[in-house]
Specification:
Length: 374
Protein backbone atom coordinates (compact mmCIF):
# COMPACT_ATOMS: atom_id res chain seq x y z
CA UNK A 1 0.00 0.00 0.00
CA UNK A 2 1.18 3.53 -0.68
CA UNK A 3 2.66 5.24 2.36
CA UNK A 4 0.49 8.34 2.15
CA UNK A 5 2.37 10.15 4.92
CA UNK A 6 5.74 9.68 3.19
CA UNK A 7 5.05 11.24 -0.21
CA UNK A 8 8.32 12.54 -1.66
CA UNK A 9 8.23 15.92 -3.39
CA UNK A 10 9.74 16.07 -6.85
CA UNK A 11 12.79 18.32 -7.29
CA UNK A 12 12.01 22.00 -7.91
CA UNK A 13 13.03 21.73 -11.55
CA UNK A 14 10.97 18.62 -12.36
CA UNK A 15 9.70 19.47 -15.90
CA UNK A 16 6.38 17.61 -15.66
CA UNK A 17 5.45 19.23 -12.38
CA UNK A 18 6.50 22.71 -13.42
CA UNK A 19 4.58 22.40 -16.67
CA UNK A 20 1.50 21.38 -14.70
CA UNK A 21 1.92 24.39 -12.43
CA UNK A 22 2.43 26.75 -15.34
CA UNK A 23 -0.78 25.45 -16.90
CA UNK A 24 -2.60 25.89 -13.59
CA UNK A 25 -1.35 29.48 -13.29
CA UNK A 26 -2.42 30.37 -16.82
CA UNK A 27 -5.81 28.64 -16.75
CA UNK A 28 -9.03 29.70 -15.16
CA UNK A 29 -9.19 27.45 -12.12
CA UNK A 30 -12.89 28.06 -11.49
CA UNK A 31 -14.60 24.87 -10.37
CA UNK A 32 -18.21 24.41 -9.38
CA UNK A 33 -20.25 21.62 -7.95
CA UNK A 34 -22.39 20.55 -10.94
CA UNK A 35 -25.02 19.06 -8.68
CA UNK A 36 -26.43 22.60 -8.70
CA UNK A 37 -28.00 23.38 -12.05
CA UNK A 38 -27.18 27.09 -12.16
CA UNK A 39 -23.50 26.63 -12.96
CA UNK A 40 -21.78 29.98 -13.42
CA UNK A 41 -19.57 30.33 -16.54
CA UNK A 42 -15.90 30.57 -15.60
CA UNK A 43 -15.49 34.06 -17.00
CA UNK A 44 -18.24 35.40 -14.74
CA UNK A 45 -17.67 33.25 -11.68
CA UNK A 46 -15.99 35.86 -9.51
CA UNK A 47 -18.66 38.50 -10.04
CA UNK A 48 -21.69 36.18 -10.04
CA UNK A 49 -20.78 34.11 -6.97
CA UNK A 50 -18.68 35.72 -4.23
CA UNK A 51 -17.94 32.29 -2.78
CA UNK A 52 -16.65 30.83 -6.03
CA UNK A 53 -12.92 30.13 -6.44
CA UNK A 54 -10.92 32.89 -8.09
CA UNK A 55 -9.01 32.26 -11.31
CA UNK A 56 -5.36 31.36 -10.85
CA UNK A 57 -3.00 34.32 -10.98
CA UNK A 58 -1.17 34.33 -14.35
CA UNK A 59 1.27 36.89 -12.93
CA UNK A 60 2.91 34.30 -10.67
CA UNK A 61 6.42 33.19 -11.67
CA UNK A 62 6.70 29.99 -13.70
CA UNK A 63 6.49 27.03 -11.36
CA UNK A 64 4.78 28.97 -8.57
CA UNK A 65 1.29 28.18 -7.30
CA UNK A 66 -1.13 29.31 -4.62
CA UNK A 67 -2.95 27.76 -1.68
CA UNK A 68 -5.40 30.51 -0.79
CA UNK A 69 -3.32 33.60 -0.11
CA UNK A 70 -0.08 31.63 0.33
CA UNK A 71 2.29 31.42 -2.64
CA UNK A 72 4.69 28.49 -3.12
CA UNK A 73 7.58 28.98 -5.51
CA UNK A 74 8.20 25.33 -6.30
CA UNK A 75 6.52 21.93 -6.39
CA UNK A 76 6.15 20.16 -3.07
CA UNK A 77 4.48 17.18 -1.46
CA UNK A 78 1.23 17.54 0.43
CA UNK A 79 2.34 18.83 3.85
CA UNK A 80 -0.96 19.70 5.48
CA UNK A 81 -2.34 16.43 6.79
CA UNK A 82 -0.69 13.28 8.08
CA UNK A 83 -2.04 9.83 7.29
CA UNK A 84 -3.73 7.88 10.10
CA UNK A 85 -1.75 5.25 11.98
CA UNK A 86 -3.23 2.48 9.82
CA UNK A 87 -1.56 3.98 6.74
CA UNK A 88 -4.84 4.54 4.92
CA UNK A 89 -5.27 7.84 3.11
CA UNK A 90 -7.61 10.48 4.46
CA UNK A 91 -10.45 10.84 1.95
CA UNK A 92 -12.14 13.95 0.63
CA UNK A 93 -15.36 13.85 -1.39
CA UNK A 94 -16.48 16.37 -4.00
CA UNK A 95 -20.26 16.17 -4.34
CA UNK A 96 -22.76 15.96 -1.52
CA UNK A 97 -25.51 14.21 -3.48
CA UNK A 98 -26.66 10.61 -3.02
CA UNK A 99 -23.45 8.99 -4.35
CA UNK A 100 -21.03 11.15 -2.39
CA UNK A 101 -23.11 10.99 0.77
CA UNK A 102 -23.54 7.21 0.57
CA UNK A 103 -19.83 6.60 0.00
CA UNK A 104 -18.88 9.02 2.77
CA UNK A 105 -21.13 7.24 5.26
CA UNK A 106 -20.12 3.75 4.10
CA UNK A 107 -16.38 4.43 4.19
CA UNK A 108 -16.63 6.08 7.59
CA UNK A 109 -18.52 3.07 8.96
CA UNK A 110 -15.79 0.84 7.51
CA UNK A 111 -13.07 2.66 9.41
CA UNK A 112 -11.78 5.09 6.80
CA UNK A 113 -11.26 8.73 7.74
CA UNK A 114 -13.33 11.06 5.57
CA UNK A 115 -11.87 14.47 6.25
CA UNK A 116 -13.73 16.82 3.95
CA UNK A 117 -16.63 17.32 1.56
CA UNK A 118 -17.25 19.97 -1.08
CA UNK A 119 -20.67 20.96 -2.38
CA UNK A 120 -22.20 24.26 -3.43
CA UNK A 121 -25.47 23.24 -1.74
CA UNK A 122 -25.41 24.29 1.96
CA UNK A 123 -28.12 21.77 2.87
CA UNK A 124 -26.11 18.93 1.36
CA UNK A 125 -22.98 20.06 3.19
CA UNK A 126 -24.86 20.07 6.47
CA UNK A 127 -26.42 16.65 5.87
CA UNK A 128 -23.01 15.21 4.97
CA UNK A 129 -21.51 16.54 8.21
CA UNK A 130 -24.34 14.96 10.20
CA UNK A 131 -23.75 11.53 8.63
CA UNK A 132 -19.95 11.82 8.54
CA UNK A 133 -18.89 13.38 11.86
CA UNK A 134 -15.63 15.28 11.78
CA UNK A 135 -15.67 16.04 8.04
CA UNK A 136 -14.98 19.66 7.16
CA UNK A 137 -17.34 21.15 4.59
CA UNK A 138 -16.45 23.49 1.73
CA UNK A 139 -18.25 25.14 -1.16
CA UNK A 140 -15.24 24.91 -3.49
CA UNK A 141 -14.00 21.52 -4.77
CA UNK A 142 -10.30 22.41 -4.64
CA UNK A 143 -10.60 23.31 -0.95
CA UNK A 144 -10.67 19.64 0.08
CA UNK A 145 -7.10 19.13 -1.14
CA UNK A 146 -5.52 20.52 2.04
CA UNK A 147 -7.50 18.05 4.18
CA UNK A 148 -6.99 14.74 2.42
CA UNK A 149 -4.74 12.44 0.42
CA UNK A 150 -7.35 10.89 -1.87
CA UNK A 151 -10.19 12.86 -3.46
CA UNK A 152 -13.34 11.16 -4.74
CA UNK A 153 -15.24 13.18 -7.37
CA UNK A 154 -18.88 12.09 -7.05
CA UNK A 155 -20.64 14.41 -9.51
CA UNK A 156 -22.58 13.82 -12.77
CA UNK A 157 -20.56 12.34 -15.65
CA UNK A 158 -20.65 15.42 -17.84
CA UNK A 159 -19.15 17.61 -15.11
CA UNK A 160 -16.21 15.47 -13.98
CA UNK A 161 -13.67 16.91 -16.42
CA UNK A 162 -14.49 20.51 -15.43
CA UNK A 163 -14.23 19.71 -11.73
CA UNK A 164 -10.95 17.84 -12.24
CA UNK A 165 -9.53 20.80 -14.15
CA UNK A 166 -9.80 22.87 -10.97
CA UNK A 167 -8.09 20.26 -8.78
CA UNK A 168 -4.33 20.83 -8.83
CA UNK A 169 -2.98 17.94 -6.80
CA UNK A 170 0.05 17.77 -4.59
CA UNK A 171 2.65 15.13 -5.32
CA UNK A 172 1.56 11.97 -3.51
CA UNK A 173 -2.18 12.68 -3.74
CA UNK A 174 -4.72 10.68 -5.73
CA UNK A 175 -7.92 11.61 -7.56
CA UNK A 176 -10.73 9.12 -8.21
CA UNK A 177 -14.14 9.55 -9.83
CA UNK A 178 -17.31 7.47 -9.47
CA UNK A 179 -18.49 7.47 -13.09
CA UNK A 180 -19.52 4.22 -14.71
CA UNK A 181 -18.93 5.70 -18.16
CA UNK A 182 -15.56 7.43 -18.05
CA UNK A 183 -12.09 6.03 -17.60
CA UNK A 184 -9.15 7.69 -15.91
CA UNK A 185 -8.51 9.89 -18.95
CA UNK A 186 -11.28 12.28 -17.87
CA UNK A 187 -9.03 13.32 -14.95
CA UNK A 188 -6.09 14.23 -17.18
CA UNK A 189 -6.25 17.95 -16.39
CA UNK A 190 -5.55 17.26 -12.71
CA UNK A 191 -2.51 15.07 -13.21
CA UNK A 192 0.90 16.20 -12.04
CA UNK A 193 4.15 14.42 -11.26
CA UNK A 194 3.73 11.99 -8.37
CA UNK A 195 -0.07 11.84 -8.48
CA UNK A 196 -2.40 8.89 -9.17
CA UNK A 197 -5.82 8.67 -10.82
CA UNK A 198 -8.53 6.03 -10.91
CA UNK A 199 -12.24 5.29 -10.96
CA UNK A 200 -14.49 3.59 -8.40
CA UNK A 201 -18.03 2.82 -9.63
CA UNK A 202 -20.42 1.03 -7.24
CA UNK A 203 -23.05 -0.84 -9.27
CA UNK A 204 -25.86 0.33 -7.02
CA UNK A 205 -29.03 2.35 -7.62
CA UNK A 206 -28.65 5.54 -5.58
CA UNK A 207 -32.32 6.49 -5.46
CA UNK A 208 -32.30 6.51 -1.64
CA UNK A 209 -29.25 6.80 0.62
CA UNK A 210 -30.38 4.26 3.24
CA UNK A 211 -31.26 1.68 0.60
CA UNK A 212 -28.02 2.34 -1.27
CA UNK A 213 -25.99 1.83 1.92
CA UNK A 214 -27.64 -1.55 2.43
CA UNK A 215 -27.22 -2.47 -1.24
CA UNK A 216 -23.45 -1.85 -1.17
CA UNK A 217 -22.98 -5.11 0.69
CA UNK A 218 -22.67 -7.75 -2.01
CA UNK A 219 -22.66 -5.22 -4.84
CA UNK A 220 -19.98 -4.97 -7.53
CA UNK A 221 -17.57 -2.04 -7.66
CA UNK A 222 -15.83 -1.52 -11.00
CA UNK A 223 -12.29 -0.22 -10.48
CA UNK A 224 -9.85 1.14 -13.05
CA UNK A 225 -6.80 3.36 -13.02
CA UNK A 226 -3.09 3.63 -12.33
CA UNK A 227 -1.40 0.46 -11.12
CA UNK A 228 -0.28 2.02 -7.84
CA UNK A 229 -3.84 2.77 -6.74
CA UNK A 230 -5.75 -0.34 -7.80
CA UNK A 231 -4.98 -2.34 -4.65
CA UNK A 232 -6.19 0.55 -2.51
CA UNK A 233 -9.44 0.85 -4.51
CA UNK A 234 -9.99 -2.89 -4.15
CA UNK A 235 -9.46 -2.59 -0.40
CA UNK A 236 -11.97 0.25 -0.24
CA UNK A 237 -14.57 -1.84 -2.07
CA UNK A 238 -14.02 -4.90 0.11
CA UNK A 239 -14.16 -2.85 3.31
CA UNK A 240 -17.72 -1.71 2.52
CA UNK A 241 -18.80 -5.28 1.71
CA UNK A 242 -18.60 -5.00 -2.07
CA UNK A 243 -16.80 -7.06 -4.69
CA UNK A 244 -14.13 -5.19 -6.69
CA UNK A 245 -13.97 -6.00 -10.40
CA UNK A 246 -11.20 -4.61 -12.59
CA UNK A 247 -12.40 -3.53 -16.04
CA UNK A 248 -10.37 -3.78 -19.22
CA UNK A 249 -9.25 -0.46 -20.74
CA UNK A 250 -11.84 1.00 -23.10
CA UNK A 251 -14.68 -1.20 -21.84
CA UNK A 252 -16.50 1.26 -19.60
CA UNK A 253 -19.06 2.61 -22.12
CA UNK A 254 -20.35 -0.93 -22.81
CA UNK A 255 -20.20 -1.79 -19.10
CA UNK A 256 -22.19 1.32 -18.26
CA UNK A 257 -24.76 0.81 -21.04
CA UNK A 258 -25.49 -2.64 -19.60
CA UNK A 259 -25.83 -1.09 -16.14
CA UNK A 260 -28.32 1.49 -17.42
CA UNK A 261 -30.41 -1.30 -18.92
CA UNK A 262 -30.19 -3.34 -15.72
CA UNK A 263 -31.37 -0.52 -13.47
CA UNK A 264 -33.15 2.26 -15.35
CA UNK A 265 -34.15 -0.16 -18.10
CA UNK A 266 -35.89 -2.40 -15.60
CA UNK A 267 -37.70 0.55 -14.02
CA UNK A 268 -38.83 1.68 -17.48
CA UNK A 269 -40.09 -1.83 -18.19
CA UNK A 270 -41.96 -1.88 -14.88
CA UNK A 271 -43.59 1.39 -15.89
CA UNK A 272 -44.73 -0.23 -19.15
CA UNK A 273 -46.06 -3.23 -17.19
CA UNK A 274 -47.99 -0.91 -14.87
CA UNK A 275 -49.49 0.94 -17.84
CA UNK A 276 -50.67 -2.31 -19.43
CA UNK A 277 -51.90 -3.68 -16.09
CA UNK A 278 -54.01 -0.57 -15.62
CA UNK A 279 -56.23 -1.92 -18.43
CA UNK A 280 -56.87 -4.89 -16.16
CA UNK A 281 -57.93 -2.61 -13.30
CA UNK A 282 -54.66 -2.59 -11.34
CA UNK A 283 -53.08 0.56 -9.98
CA UNK A 284 -49.28 0.88 -9.74
CA UNK A 285 -49.03 -0.73 -6.32
CA UNK A 286 -51.30 -3.54 -7.43
CA UNK A 287 -49.28 -4.12 -10.59
CA UNK A 288 -46.05 -4.34 -8.61
CA UNK A 289 -47.66 -6.70 -6.11
CA UNK A 290 -48.97 -8.98 -8.89
CA UNK A 291 -46.03 -8.95 -11.31
CA UNK A 292 -43.09 -8.20 -8.98
CA UNK A 293 -42.82 -11.80 -7.73
CA UNK A 294 -42.91 -13.06 -11.32
CA UNK A 295 -40.07 -10.67 -12.21
CA UNK A 296 -38.04 -11.89 -9.24
CA UNK A 297 -38.72 -15.52 -10.17
CA UNK A 298 -37.57 -14.91 -13.75
CA UNK A 299 -34.33 -13.33 -12.51
CA UNK A 300 -33.77 -16.20 -10.10
CA UNK A 301 -34.31 -18.74 -12.88
CA UNK A 302 -31.85 -16.89 -15.15
CA UNK A 303 -29.19 -16.90 -12.45
CA UNK A 304 -29.74 -20.55 -11.66
CA UNK A 305 -30.32 -21.96 -15.15
CA UNK A 306 -28.93 -19.40 -17.60
CA UNK A 307 -30.78 -16.79 -19.66
CA UNK A 308 -32.04 -18.97 -22.52
CA UNK A 309 -33.26 -21.88 -20.34
CA UNK A 310 -35.15 -19.41 -18.13
CA UNK A 311 -37.13 -17.96 -21.05
CA UNK A 312 -40.86 -18.74 -21.06
CA UNK A 313 -43.90 -17.38 -22.89
CA UNK A 314 -45.45 -17.37 -26.35
CA UNK A 315 -42.15 -16.59 -28.07
CA UNK A 316 -40.74 -19.93 -26.92
CA UNK A 317 -43.94 -21.85 -27.62
CA UNK A 318 -44.42 -20.34 -31.08
CA UNK A 319 -47.88 -19.17 -30.10
CA UNK A 320 -48.73 -16.59 -32.76
CA UNK A 321 -52.39 -16.42 -31.72
CA UNK A 322 -51.49 -15.26 -28.22
CA UNK A 323 -49.19 -12.58 -29.58
CA UNK A 324 -51.92 -11.42 -31.98
CA UNK A 325 -54.38 -11.07 -29.09
CA UNK A 326 -51.85 -9.14 -27.02
CA UNK A 327 -51.17 -6.69 -29.82
CA UNK A 328 -54.88 -6.12 -30.40
CA UNK A 329 -55.46 -5.37 -26.71
CA UNK A 330 -52.51 -3.00 -26.49
CA UNK A 331 -53.49 -1.15 -29.66
CA UNK A 332 -56.83 -0.28 -28.11
CA UNK A 333 -55.91 0.21 -24.47
CA UNK A 334 -52.20 1.09 -24.26
CA UNK A 335 -50.86 2.03 -27.70
CA UNK A 336 -47.78 3.74 -26.24
CA UNK A 337 -46.54 0.33 -25.06
CA UNK A 338 -46.74 -1.41 -28.44
CA UNK A 339 -43.18 -0.64 -29.53
CA UNK A 340 -41.76 -1.98 -26.27
CA UNK A 341 -43.84 -5.15 -26.46
CA UNK A 342 -42.82 -5.81 -30.06
CA UNK A 343 -39.12 -5.20 -29.37
CA UNK A 344 -39.02 -7.47 -26.33
CA UNK A 345 -40.98 -10.33 -27.91
CA UNK A 346 -38.79 -10.12 -31.06
CA UNK A 347 -35.80 -10.59 -28.78
CA UNK A 348 -37.51 -13.56 -27.14
CA UNK A 349 -38.12 -15.11 -30.54
CA UNK A 350 -34.46 -14.63 -31.46
CA UNK A 351 -33.33 -16.32 -28.23
CA UNK A 352 -35.77 -19.17 -28.72
CA UNK A 353 -34.69 -19.75 -32.32
CA UNK A 354 -30.96 -19.58 -31.61
CA UNK A 355 -30.82 -21.41 -28.29
CA UNK A 356 -34.08 -23.21 -27.63
CA UNK A 357 -34.72 -24.99 -30.91
CA UNK A 358 -37.67 -22.92 -32.17
CA UNK A 359 -38.24 -23.94 -35.79
CA UNK A 360 -37.20 -21.28 -38.34
CA UNK A 361 -40.61 -21.28 -40.03
CA UNK A 362 -42.34 -20.74 -36.67
CA UNK A 363 -39.96 -17.92 -35.83
CA UNK A 364 -40.69 -16.31 -39.21
CA UNK A 365 -44.44 -16.50 -38.55
CA UNK A 366 -44.00 -14.82 -35.16
CA UNK A 367 -41.87 -12.05 -36.64
CA UNK A 368 -44.51 -11.42 -39.28
CA UNK A 369 -47.13 -11.11 -36.53
CA UNK A 370 -44.91 -8.67 -34.68
CA UNK A 371 -44.27 -6.45 -37.69
CA UNK A 372 -45.39 -2.86 -37.25
CA UNK A 373 -48.14 -2.36 -39.85
CA UNK A 374 -48.75 1.32 -39.10
Amino acid sequence: MRAWSDATPPPPGDPATLEELRRAAAADASAVDPEVTDVVPAANAASADPGAPRPADPALPAGAHRHGDEVHLEAHAHPHVAAPDDGRPIIGIVGGGPVGLTLGAALTAAGWQVGAVASRDPARRERFRRLVPGARAFAEPASVLDDCHLVIIAVPDDAIADVAAGMHLYSGQALVHTSGLHGTEVLAAARAAGTSCGSFHPLVAFADVDRALAALRGATVAIEGDDDILDLLAEMAQSIGALPVRLAPGSKPAYHAAAVLAAGGLIALLDVIAEVAARAGLDEAGALAVYGPLTAQALGNARALGIAPALTGPGVRGDAGTIEAHLAALEVGAPATLDTYRALVRRQVAIAEARRGLAPETAARLRAELADRR
